[in-house]
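dumping this here before i forget
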Amino acid sequence: MSGRVRQWTERDAIKLAALKDMAEANLPLEQVAPHIHSLTCRNQDAYLVIYYGPHRLIPSSRRGDPAPNESELNGPEITVPGHLASDIFLGADLLNFLSKGGARVAIALPLHLIAERVERIFVEAQF
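structure:
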């Protein structure tokens, strides 16, 4: 298999730094890595939150049916053992999510701090 060599981007380095932080915390990388795969750069007070918590069951619909309305999206809550979810939150939104029981267990990565750390390295290395 052949491919082109490409230069690392800041986004690549941010993902690697996030994985490094998770590895140093002894978290199972096979479970957290998929949540880090699609990270984007954040300059705001943003957090990647990987969490275990309740999910809403939403009734299935056939292709072409109208989109469900709000009342149809309020199905029963279930928790699936071992199933992790992730979202990116701004600071105040994260506190709101956690205080309303959105997660039973949560790990928060401060993306803005990781991005700052990586940016300093890129500046020092003159990439």
